[in-house]
Amino acid sequence: MKTIRKIVQIDEDLCNGCGQCLPNCAEGAISIVNGKAKLKEDKLCDGLGACLGNCPMDAIRIIEREAEDFDETAAHAEMAAMKAATAKPVLGCGCPSSNLMTFTIPAAPTAGTSPGPSQLGHWPVKLRLVPQDAPFLRGAEVILTADCVPVALPDFNARLGGKAVMIACPKFDDPAPYLHKLVEIFRHAGLKKIQILRMEVPCCSGLSALVRQAMDIAGAKFPVEDIVVTRTGSVKPAEVLSIL
Question: Does the pLDDT value for residue 153 go beyond 90?
Fold first, then answer.
């Protein structure tokens, strides 16, 4: 049934797709589509506006318009489906990219020197595919990187030695499932430290926002480095060793 009620409106011209609104929508009503935040269905939005204060672009507001009534049952089902999607990643094509692997890591080269052997010690690396109970996460130091960083940062591979790595895109991926997975990892893996590697573009700040939100929900406490990489591959000095 449709009534005149309060509901979220997203200005796509202002939205930069950072995804900082998603972790704060308890109903799972917002997703990122083609780099823009969008309301999935009117019935999933309760109109309370918990997402408003987390938009750095001020692209979200509450309006009154004719909309389908809020359906709490549907909202719970949507959140449950999002959580289930992160629990056991399965690729219907039969691609083995989600199969866990552990490699023997050779001696790490010094950062900034000529390339040496790969320092990647596990598989998969995509956050979407990494199981929340993956053995290589237990007690690990973790690099959580935006997927553009390895292309820009010359010594990226040299930074991996002895660390677990997970890759995600805070602009084009849906951050909500990532939030749920990070919460479970933070609760149970006993991480030593997280190093966030993100690009200087504004949308990449969503990766740091996800870590902060997940730590708050999980009640986790460990050191976090928030490192910003420029498009030309340098590390911004003022951002290095910024502890969240």
Answer: yes
